[in-house]
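Appendix B, example 12.
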Amino acid sequence: MPYPAQMDAQRIVENARQMIEAEGVDNLSLNKLAAALGVKAPSLYRHFASKNDLLRAVNLQTGQHLVEAILAAIEAAPDDPQQRVLAMSQAYRAFVHAHPMTYTLMFGNSSPELRPDPALLEQMAIPLQNVMAAISGEADSLAALRGMMALAHGF
């Protein structure tokens, strides 16, 4: 059994994400997560004050992984703005299919206490907005990104 001080937040979040993907968010319990990590449930509270705090961290990590996947697709795409937007959309779709439960937790949950810090989400969106600026122009890039995201979300 690992010593609780050797447990880090990143490992907890990653294990929680895996459990959510395998069993759904409703089946995630701190007791079950702690058992999977080889610690007692109170050890998790050293890193997260509540299950909501843990889910917020899962949502943030999900958003970070999504943006990383999109940025990797942009890097691999030809240096053509339309091809890059297509690559963004395809990477987004592939991510959703690969991580349906955590994606749903992040975007399908309207609960404000589970939303990551809006400033962090904004920082993650800026590189994507920059790609859209190559097509729409700087002034309309935010609206273009929002439009693309609305389409990706099934508008």
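The longest helix spans residues 51-76. The chain has a mean pLDDT of 89.
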